[in-house]
Amino acid sequence: MIKATHRLTVAIIGRPNVGKSTLFNRLVGKKIALVDDTPGVTRDWRAADGRVGGLEFTVVDTAGLEDVFDNSLEARMRQQTERAIERADVALFLVDARAGITAMDRHFAAWLRKAGKPTILVANKCEGVAGRPGLLEAFELGLGEPVPLSAEHGEGMADLVEALEPFMPKEDEEEQDAADAAEADTFFAADDEEAAEAAAAEEEAKALQLAIVGRPNVGKSTLLNALVREERVLTGPEAGMTRDAIAVEWEWKGRPIRLVDTAGLRKRAKVDGKLEKLANQDTLRVIRMAHVVVLVLDADGILDKQDLTIARLVVEEGRALVIALNKWDAVADKNAALRRLSDRLQTSLPQVKGIPTVTISALKGQRLEELLDTVVTAYGLWNRRIPTSQLNRWLMGMTESHPPPLVDGRRLKIRYMTQVKSRPPTFALFVSKPVDLPENYARYLVNGLRDSFDLPGVPIRMLLRKGSSSNPFD
Predict the structure, then answer these.
(1) What is the domain extent for residue 139?
(2) Alpha-carbon dihedral 369, 374, 376, 379, rounded to 10 degrees
(3) Under a CB-based contact definition with an 8 Å cutoff, are residues 302 and 325 in contact?
(4) Which of 472, 405, 386, 473 is nearest to 444 (CA)?
(5) Does residue 102 lie within any of the structural domains?
(6) If you ran DSSP here, which 8-state letter would residue 366 be given?
(7) Same-domain check for residues 235 and 125
(8) What is the pTM of this model?
(9) CATH at residue 459
């Protein structure tokens, strides 16, 4: 078998609204990028694993190319696209066959020829006969024979595979056979203990999924750029600049991290238009997939109602939460601001005590190391497992110091307890009559767990089960 020595990177480029994000979703096999008829939906470039016709590669979606060179948002979008093209091995230059070849298509075709980047010309929207004239016009761009396809309907993918195949890097077959044999020897030589260690190492090597969320314009994108130390996503004074959730594969102190910048979440009543609703849904999807969520707050407006709504959502989804107080360098009375935050958390989020808070300045790069240390610590607590024997010794002490209440003249009996899962820590409590256990007593046990086993700021779930008279864990 011939195997690629490194992964091919393919950037999809073209003027706005020619179907770049639709093709990106088609190649990735998921609806990751937002798609709408409005031009300029995509603003930052994003990468994902693509597969078509047996070929595997990294595919990059980019913003629409605009012939603008000032300090406007469109010019900054063009600069982001240029950075993506520089990193790519080959460019897929999309034109809209139904609209025909425009002056902007000709301009950027000339730019690509001058840049010398290997380019495949793709005529999109070629379903039916309406795209035939545009397909023939595309020959005039001087980028070779255009590949006709329909990204929306999945037509023409075989032709795209044929065009991509010459760019796929290959390694020597003998080297690959030797590598395959060595891999097989390693597999069959491993005993159960070694396999378990390998599985543990593999789990450690998996990327920590870190999402950055918050209201619009609090500095989420600035924070991502400061962490990865490059202008990876667009920033600026315009509110709501980020639309797609942009993921960046990154490494910090040897630990792989998948960092995701999200669109700002506004109050539901203020969400206007289909595009913003789609962006909000994308942000909610990212929160559900995250391990740790950093909620970025503007130090001038600490924990308003919308911030609390976002924090509750993170907790309800069972994600580890870290609060980043941004623009801290501009705060005059820092002690008063911290007291206000602490009071708001105790009053409005009593179910999660000890949420870690880090004061930062994303713009100046202040205290970002401390923020990442806090994220890694929160991730460890989120993965925490407590042995059943320790839990039941602790449970005995808790019930002796504060016995369960009486129900119909008889005291409820708590039989035993075990942790059924982590991420977040989830416990099953076996009770004689689970439906009669008061909520405040369950909360007493959860708070005790948090204090006794050092689980600050992590969502804890308690599942009540009907227990038999014997403890299976004795």
Answers:
(1) 9-167
(2) -160
(3) yes
(4) 405
(5) yes
(6) B
(7) no
(8) 0.69
(9) 3.30.300.20
Beta carbons of 102 and 67 less than 8 angstroms apart:
no
For the chain, 474 residues long, give each residue's pLDDT as a single digit of tens: 333 346 899 988 888 888 888 898 899 887 766 554 554 455 567 778 888 888 999 988 887 666 655 566 666 666 777 777 888 899 999 999 998 999 888 888 888 888 788 999 999 999 888 888 999 999 999 899 999 999 988 899 999 999 999 998 765 444 444 445 444 444 433 444 444 444 444 545 588 999 999 888 888 888 998 998 888 776 655 555 555 677 888 899 989 999 888 877 766 655 555 555 666 777 888 898 899 999 999 887 777 788 888 888 999 999 999 999 998 988 888 888 888 888 888 888 877 788 999 999 998 999 999 999 999 999 999 999 999 999 999 999 999 999 988 887 788 899 899 999 999 999 999 998 888 899 999 999 999 999 999 998 899 999 999 876 555 554
**Count of domains in the chain?**
3
Same domain, 454 and 334: no
Does 185 reside within a domain? no
Rounded to the nearest 10 degrees, the angle between the axes of helix 368-382 and helix 220-228 is 100
Angle formed at CA 228 by CA 225 and CA 233, multiple of 5 degrees = 35
In order of 64, 71, 97, 206, 423, the CA distances from 153 in angstroms are: 21, 37, 15, 35, 39
**Contact between 82 and 60 (Cβ < 8 Å):** no
In this structure, are 375 and 418 located in the same domain?
Answer: no
Residues 362, 218: Cα–Cα separation, whole Å:
10
